[in-house]
Amino acid sequence: MYRKLIATAASLLLTGCGLADVGAAGASAGTSAAEQAKQAKEIEARAQQQVDASVKQADDQRKAAEDAAQ
Prior knowledge:
Blueprint: H1 2-15, H2 24-28, H3 33-69
Helix pairs in contact: 1-3
């Protein structure tokens, strides 16, 4: 059950992570491929941080619920 919640939260976070910003718009603005790659890595790192935070929050909530049940 918690894995489904975590997967849903992760997908919601990644939906709006901004990867579209490094596509054709960046290329048409004269951004180099290296700069696009750098931006993509930064966006990926931010998205991973958000996923990690969501997983931690879900774990904390699960632990709190388990503690409250005891």
